């Protein structure tokens, strides 16, 4: 055993967030604090399973009822929801409390909750006339999209945006935030306190105005700046 945290990624779709996590951990090399050792989907057809197999990572197809057993069998430390549309039962959210996170393509608590996933989220943002959207990484509890927030970053809504164009812009930020949140959680640099509040980490400049409970990471800021030049 490497001493690194054993991560399971749960995904129902193509798995681009999974790929971002795999690529980020690979880029960290020996400095990484976690390894993705399992990818779980609700259906065999999920593209994320094919990505996992290409990366040599074990895969499983699980129902909500068999999920805890599948995670236990691999001695999973951290659970990451990355576009996972199946219900996560209480036995999992309670057993992995403070060790299970999700990425959502909007600035929670707005535009989240049961039934708000995929393009529906971005359509709701556009229908509301919001001028800013973004991505959120949060701890998972018994309620959809309601757990304590770890990291958020804003994304502009531009004139002529469609749900598809906004989704693509938000996804690029998801690919930056989620891998760093996984590594920070694995490193113990961020945690869920006994009071249910997120603790640890430092606010990274220029994020002074936005909450990023992630360790100081100039490369993150540089990559975000490159996405949205002033
Ligand atoms: C992402 O936008 C995620 O926020 C949402 O579902 C999408 C999954 O995309 N919950 P992918 O499968 O990671 O490409």
Query: Could you give the distance between the termini?
Result: 45 Å
Mean pLDDT: 89
Main pleated sheet: 7 strands, mixed
Structural class by helix and strand composition = alpha/beta
Helix and strand element order: EHEHEHEHEHEEHEEH
Note down, in words, how this protein is organized:
With 230 residues, the protein is of the alpha/beta class. It is built from 7 helices and 9 strands. It has helices spanning 16-28, 47-54, 67-73, 90-95, 119-127, 163-187, 218-227, and strands at 5-10, 34-41, 58-61, 78-81, 100-104, 132-139, 149-156, 191-192, 198-199. The longest helix is centred in the C-terminal third of the chain and has 25 residues, at 163-187. The protein is globular and about 50 Å long. Mean pLDDT is 89; it is low at 203-211. 5-O-phosphono-beta-D-ribofuranosylamine binds at residues 11, 13-17, 82-83, 103-105, 117-118, 171, 174.
Keywords:
single chain, 230 residues, alpha/beta, seven-stranded mixed sheet, two-stranded antiparallel ribbon, 7 helices, 34% helix, 20% strand, globular, binds 5-O-phosphono-beta-D-ribofuranosylamine
Would you summarize the structure shown here?
The protein is an alpha/beta fold. Helix content is 34%, strand content 20%.
């Amino acid at each position: 055993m490497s001493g690194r945290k054993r991560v399971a990624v749960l995904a129902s779709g193509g798995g681009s967030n999974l790929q971002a996590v795999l690529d980020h951990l690979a880029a960290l090399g020996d400095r990484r604090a976690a390894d993705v050792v399992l990818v779980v989907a609700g259906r065999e057809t999920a593209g994320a399973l094919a990505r996992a197999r290409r990366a040599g990572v074990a895969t499983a197809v699980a129902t909500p009822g068999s999920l805890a057993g599948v995670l236990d069998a691999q001695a999973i430390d951290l659970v990451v929801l990355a576009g996972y549309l199946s219900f996560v039962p209480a036995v999992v959210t309670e057993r992995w409390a403070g060790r299970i996170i999700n990425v959502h393509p909007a600035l929670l608590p707005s535009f989240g909750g049961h039934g708000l996933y995929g393009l529906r989220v971005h359509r709701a943002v556009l229908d509301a006339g919001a001028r800013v959207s973004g991505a959120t990484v949060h701890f998972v509890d018994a309620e959809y999209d309601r757990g304590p927030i770890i990291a958020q970053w804003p994304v502009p809504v531009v004139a002529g945006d469609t749900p598809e164009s906004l989704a693509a812009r938000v996804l690029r930020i998801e690919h930056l935030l989620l891998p760093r949140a996984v590594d920070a959680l694995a490193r113990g640099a961020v945690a869920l306190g006994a009071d249910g509040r997120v603790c640890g980490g430092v606010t990274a400049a220029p994020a002074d105005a936005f909450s990023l409970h992630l360790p100081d990471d100039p490369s993150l800021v540089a990559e975000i700046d490159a996405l949205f030049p002033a």
